[in-house]
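Re: [ENG-882] Designed sequences occasionally contain unexpected residues at chain ends

Forwarding the minimal case from QA. Structure tokens:
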């Protein structure tokens, strides 16, 4: 198996714990489903969120799905003029037999604009 990175992002409707958690769960669930990833093959998950999303960490919502054995890490996204507000980004490291070209990156809702060249919305 190879270690591969799966990218994704989603915009969050409001700066509330509920909205951040729901969006984070939806993003990770979609990544796992589209790439047919078994949870035991996930090495780690790195989240970043924009400065305006400070009501909760994305990892908190994912932990509520039972992802207790997978290392989850959160950080604040670097502020860049004109960047997309209200956005959670993720990098999932997985062990997989898939080639790099077979990985399906997931950008949902308003985040599709971040990487339209590789995005599969939903």
């Amino acid at each position: 198996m190879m270690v591969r990175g799966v990218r994704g992002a989603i915009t969050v409707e409001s700066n509330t714990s509920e909205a951040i958690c729901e969006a984070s769960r939806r993003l990770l669930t979609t990544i796992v489903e589209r790439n047919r990833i078994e949870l035991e093959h996930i090495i780690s998950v790195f989240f970043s969120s924009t400065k305006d999303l400070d009501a909760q960490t994305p990892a908190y919502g994912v932990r509520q799905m039972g992802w207790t054995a997978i290392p989850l890490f959160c950080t604040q996204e670097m502020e860049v003029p004109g960047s997309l507000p209200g956005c959670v980004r993720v990098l999932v490291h997985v062990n997989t037999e898939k080639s790099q070209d077979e990985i399906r990156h997931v950008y949902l809702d308003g985040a599709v604009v971040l990487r339209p060249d590789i995005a599969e919305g939903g």
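QA comment: On inspection the terminal residues look reasonable. DSSP finds two helices and five strands in the chain. Proposing we downgrade this to a documentation issue.
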